[in-house]
Amino acid sequence: MAGPADYAKVVPLLRYLKSRMLGPKVRELAPPLAEAVAVLRDSMYAPVAEAKDLEGVERALASLYFSTVEEVYRLSPDEAKGLAAAFAKAKEVEDLMIVARAIAEGQRPPRWLPSAEWRLGSMAYVLQEVEASPTMTRLQEVVRDRDLAKTLAMASEAYAELRQPEVFTFFSLTGSFIMFRSAVAGFTSKDVGDVESVVCPLIEERAALGVLEAWAIRVNPKTFARAIEGPKVCGVSWDLMAAAYERGFEGELSGLILDVAPLLRRSRLEGKTRRELMVSVRRSARLAAQRAAEAVYEGYPFTPALVAAALTLLMLEVDNIRSALSGIMLNLTQEELEQALA
User: Fold this and answer.
1) Alpha-carbon distance 63 to 61, whole Å?
2) Mind telling me which SUPFAM superfamilies this protein's record contains (predicted)?
3) What proportion of the chain, given as a percentage, has pLDDT over 70?
4) How far apart are CA 210 and CA 228, in angstroms?
């Protein structure tokens, strides 16, 4: 188990990182655009303030996010490197499924996606290769990361059965939560409790959204079970979740939720419609993750939990900035902007 000396390099960075975030000021990102940009100029997001359009915002945020994750990764002790990398690999899975869905729908894949900025990853190479040959076969050939390849293989198999491009959205959710789950499962020390308090809400969010997506597109219960199987972490038994999905597969959504909701410890599934349920689990999970991360900063710093806390706060804040600036540029109302923020 790593000690204070092993975390001596990364802890100052993590403290500085939090001091440069917007924190509660993210709620000040409101129309007009000039005032929203002014809020960013006095923070670590100053480069984003120079963006001229939505693509510029996306590229600036992605560059900042992934360069920060990379720096944390490099300075972290070995026991925390996998945890830091999970915050990039989860994004890689999501982007890979965007590429796969585009191909399934007969469209050209995007030439750029955010995780292409992760220099330790492979998405830049993947995008370059499939641009010349945008086929599912070629995509499977060029994905060399074992975890990404496994998710893509399962998603492709499920698509062959369902013929619905939405299946890649389902595997985007399950694939990203597996990246976080694997990172948490790797800890056996006394620090695992604090790490779980921060990361498990993110895992539950993606798992619950995956249940809703799977039910909507009629993912086979056996396929669902294979997609989420793995070690028990966060106090959640994935076998029980798979069993709950199988029981609710043929019935009404309300019955499925009655079975799944009790399995979640850090997030809530509330509402009648699928959209209401998605909003409730997303907001409750992200609020739980944010509160846990803030609490970690008040405690003993030389632990992997501080790595999880810093990168969780960064991820949530980057998502909120992207939503706010995109909404302002698209002329959303103030109410719509507030709903877009986690």
Assistant:
1) 5
2) V-type ATP synthase subunit C (SSF103486)
3) 96
4) 9
